[in-house]
Amino acid sequence: MRFFATFKIALRALRRNKMRSVLTALGIIIGVGAVIAMVGIGNGAKSQVEAQIASLGQNVVLVFSGNFSSSGARSGWGGAGTMTIDDAVAIEREVPGVLAVSPEVRARQQVLANGLNWNTQVLGEGIDYLNIRDWPLSDGAMFTDQDVRSAAKVCIIGKTIADQLFPNEDVVGQSLRIRNIPFKILGVLTSKGLSVMGQDQDDVLVVPYTSLMKRISGRTNIGSVTVQAQSPAVSANVQRDIADLLRQRHRMGPGRDDDFTIRGQQEIADAATATTRTMTVLLGAIAGVSLIVGGIGIMNIMLVSVTERTREIGIRMAVGAHARDILLQFLIEAITLSLLGGIIGIALGVSAAKILSAVAGWPTLISASSIIIAVLFSAAIGIFFGFYPARKAAHLDPIEALRYE
């Protein structure tokens, strides 16, 4: 009963100075709102990046040609023609845990159709490429193994190319020209939108890798191999076994650098989300400073309140109130201010995040954990910054307090 009576006295004191209580809570409101909004924006960006990484497919391992040292010069991914089709075949046949493999060759080409032209990225891939990437067709069908063996003049196109070269037309069955070579369109890819780097994933044309090598680029080697492991549990073993196999096939002795680069999907995801994680922490820390400022404001006002109510404290002690009752009263006032500010701040932060998302097009993700943390942190701010004024009030000398004017 004593606790509830003290709680009612604390609320009555806050209502007595409504404007001051609102202004005191304003620092917490702005601080919590800023933290919720900034962390929501950071989490939204991180989830968008993770979704784009997931669009690579499931359990994907990428093997790139290059990454070797020669006479002091170091080459990057795809910088050297060190991988062949036989390497890709060997990976599929000899590495345990491999579900599918697609050799890859890339080229940038001008594509013509219907009197229109479009510069796009041409990918030479194997028949399992769409399954590995988990990329369904919106229309038509994928080319076959026979098309790959015969270097057939067939292709699959992305939605951007379909819109640019065949506006408002049925695309499947029509032809386009790459370097004056006609390619029949077998299918259209489902739209995937922008990639992690902001590139249009739908601006792509997929042909059999043999067709690109023999008919377009004239290359005899491949740039990379896209591998799908059977499960996340075997992905690390697959990467290790691929490295051992390629070193053996390329006759690389001990001490020599790899002439290839292997990256797992988790490594790519970690690298891509590192920046967004840093941004989220930085934004949250900057917004958190305003919470500290709000807490200092609570302490300042509570100290003023103790000074103003010194005589009241003396009277309460004189009629039997204990030091812990005075301590609890002022502590409850500080916590109430902080919690009310936190609740209003959460509503403000969620609203601000939604407005930013709607106006600026920024992705936002407000998690339940961030809201719970904000409420707990608000209470902690109230306890931390309210304890000293409350303790000061509780330790006032009753006689001196009654004499105070």
Summary?
57% of the residues lie in helices and 18% in strands. It has helices spanning 2-16, 18-54, 85-94, 129-133, 145-149, 159-165, 209-217, 232-249, 265-308, 310-318, 323-360, 368-394, 398-403; strands at 60-65, 69-70, 73-74, 98-113, 116-125, 137-140, 154-157, 175-178, 181-189, 204-208, 224-229, 260-264.
Task: List key phrases describing it.
single chain, 405 residues, alpha+beta, 2 domains, six-stranded mixed barrel, two-stranded antiparallel ribbon, 13 helices, 18% strand
What does this structure look like?
The protein is α+β, with helices and mostly antiparallel strands and 405 residues long. The chain folds into two domains: 183 residues, no CATH class; 167 residues, no CATH class. The protein is built from 13 helices and twelve strands. α2 runs antiparallel to α9, α9 crosses α11 and α11 packs antiparallel against α12. It is elongated and about 105 Å long. The two termini are 32 Å apart. About 2% of the residues have low confidence.
Structural class assignment: alpha+beta
Count the domains. Answer: 2
Oligomeric state of this protein: single chain
Distance between the termini: 32 Å
Question: Quick one: overall form?
Answer: elongated
Strand order of the largest sheet: 4-5-10-7-9-8
Helix tally equals: 13
**Residue-averaged pLDDT:** 82
The ordered string of helix (H) and strand (E) elements is HHEEEHEEHEHEHEEEHEHEHHHHH
* Low-confidence runs: 68-75
Q: Count the E strands.
A: 12
